[in-house]
Amino acid sequence: VEAKSVDAANQLVKLLQAIKESAKITEPGTLDFRIYQFEEKLLLLEEYEDETALQTHFKNETVKAFLEAIPSLATGIEAKSIDAANQLTKHLLAKKGTAKTSDPGILSFRIYQFEEKLMLIEEYEDEKALQAHRQSEGFKAFSEAVSSLTAAGGTLNRFGWLGFM
Q: Do the beta carbons of residue 20 and residue 58 sit within 8 Å?
């Protein structure tokens, strides 16, 4: 989510924190709910036990309040092709099936898709494992696929390496 300003982002974070606290009490199917903020940009990572848990989440009054606030506090999201997003997801799912053997330093690999938007979260043992991944044929093939399947002027946004636990 990209907010209209840092103040708007802070308001959205307060709403999200209320969702998180409510979910702890009323949504046993919510497995993970994380909020990251960098200035006016927010990254939400949510994981649910199943579709029923997700539907329960959307019925929560705090979620409804957040969704009502979005139009006044957040900017629009530029759409890409859903077909292209589906192709990239297929490419990533194929990679995920072989990740443990092709990238032995990988700890986790998650793919999230919402219509034409994709989020890929990979965690590695250390910097050496991350660098080995970036030199792999799978990474090179995915980078080529991104170039050919994103709209003109489209970008692949990467968060920087922050360190390993």
A: no
